[in-house]
From TrEMBL:
It comes from the Bacteria. InterPro entries: CBS_dom, CBS_dom_sf, Diverse_CBS-Domain. It holds the Pfam family CBS. Residues 8-66, 75-130 form the CBS domain. This is CBS domain-containing protein. Keywords: CBS domain. SUPFAM superfamilies: CBS-domain pair.
Length: 148
């Protein structure tokens, strides 16, 4: 399974901000859309990611306030990325090694979407369920699972 398969199922809705926007704008956008990350774009290029991790770190450093920081000051300006052709198992390894929950997907310099750890886990579970059903169908007289 490739990242492109996940994006196809997930859809292509993206939420972006500019690096000079305020953290309050970012928090309101994230709360309004129930999302955990925002892609930071400037002049059509990916320049960073802002996740709830950076926001929590900022709140902790400022004793519970956002201060007057722009997104640029607290964003991850070198986010881990992948391509639509990256294998999902490679993405899982990358996310675990870098302790990353959100991964922008780039095709050359074009942002194709963002996948989350949740998206990857869901895709893997669904793929395993499909393979399991196919194997059971292949084996003759396999007992049906009981659903409650």
């Amino acid at each position: 399974m490739k990242v492109s398969d996940i994006l196809q199922i997930k859809g292509n809705t993206l939420y972006t901000v500019t690096p000079d926007a305020s953290l309050l704008v970012a928090i309101n956008t994230m709360a309004e859309h129930d999302i955990g990350s925002l892609v930071v774009m400037e002049y059509g290029d990916l320049v960073g990611m802002l996740t709830f991790r950076e926001l929590i770190e900022t709140l902790a450093a400022n004793h519970g306030t956002l201060g007057t920081h722009s997104i640029r000051k607290v964003m991850d300006d070198a986010p881990l990325t992948c391509t639509p052709e990256t294998d999902v198992n490679e993405v899982r390894r990358m996310m675990l090694e870098r302790h990353t929950r959100y991964l922008p997907v780039l095709d050359n310099r074009t942002l194709m979407g963002v996948i989350s750890f949740y998206d990857v886990a869901k895709a893997v579970v669904e793929e395993q369920g499909f393979e399991n059903r196919m194997l059971k169908a292949y084996i003759r007289d396999w007992p049906e699972e009981k659903t409650d």
